[in-house]
């Protein structure tokens, strides 16, 4: 990627585009042509690149910002950062000072953003300044000798960020099934290349997960990348839930007993103690492909309306919209089984990001 190119926050662009009635990337490209008639605006493919975190020019960034009525074009810059610093002899390094970049970028490239890498004996975590976005991640166990799953490190969650089966997670997960599910302990592992591995459900009507310690008030966007390596039920799910599990939404990737609960779909409850019911499908009735990264996004606007999106990374996702309320909401990474479970399930969460301040400022323009 050329030095003068930038990576934009594709999820934010999609949300703002839809809020302004631009239903497709072609519509947004057309809107830029009205602004930049002399140079014909942007091509449809250029907008696709911007929404899929490909490098684009500053001119593209400016035209998209103007078409979406974003006053500060830098609000569209991607603030998702990820770096691994395995050597505890390294000092604290700003990401701008050549800390290792994500595997999705070529060596030597880096994304813009204000972040600091905490380099403490195989720690994987990011501290982001000014709470523009919070990258929620994990730490491997401090002792690298115990291994599991063909040599992958055992994982220990950063308990300042995550808690296993927290109270909000338990309230929500128990009602994902009818009859109520049994919430069980997850088995976690860590791969430096794949991220957090989660397995643990071992029968029908079981759920498990980890919950963010912090709750988030709208507007915010949660974006996650996840990959199933084994799937015989619900291998992965991204949940936002209030404290009692009565409001929220879950994006599921599952192999169900029938077409209804097979594929990508979303559910929500009708209040505390109620079953989380199917609200919409985001794919054909086929289980998510194994060893393919999927991108799951939940954006909640200030009025409490959620836009959900899911699909293979790099492809145009399917979307849905539903009211969820104004929270605050916890983030839960989970997996579970209803009436159908024929074997093990395992998924890897490569990244989870909650963005709020930048999106809030933009939505208020």
Protein architecture, described:
The protein is α+β, with helices and mostly antiparallel strands. The protein has three domains: 5-77, 434 Repressor (Amino-terminal Domain) (Orthogonal Bundle); 79-131, no CATH class; 140-362, Jelly Rolls (Sandwich). The protein is 15% helix and 33% strand. It contains six helices and 24 strands. The strands form four sheets. Strands 6, 7, 8, 9, 12, 13, 15, 20, 21, 22 and 24 form an eleven-stranded antiparallel β-sheet that branches. Strands 10, 11, 14, 16, 17, 18, 19 and 23 form an eight-stranded mixed β-sheet that branches. The longest helix is centred in the first third of the chain and has 11 residues, at 25-35. Mean pLDDT is 78; it is low at 80-132, 141-152 and 358-365.
Number of domains: 3
- CATH level-two architecture of the largest domain: Sandwich
Distance between the termini: 31 Å
How much helicity do the residues have? 10-25%
Please write the string of helix (H) and strand (E) elements.
Answer: EHHHEHEEEEEEEEHEEEEEEEEEEEEEEH
- Beta strand %: 25-35%
- Overall spatial form: elongated
Largest sheet, strands/sense/barrel: 11 strands, antiparallel
Poorly predicted tracts of residues: 80-132, 141-152, 358-365
Rg computed from alpha carbons, rounded to a whole number of angstroms = 20 Å
Mean pLDDT: 78
Number of E strands: 24
Q: Figure out the total of helices.
A: 6
CATH fold-level name of the largest domain:
Jelly Rolls
What would you call the structural class? Answer: alpha+beta
CATH class of the largest domain: Mainly Beta
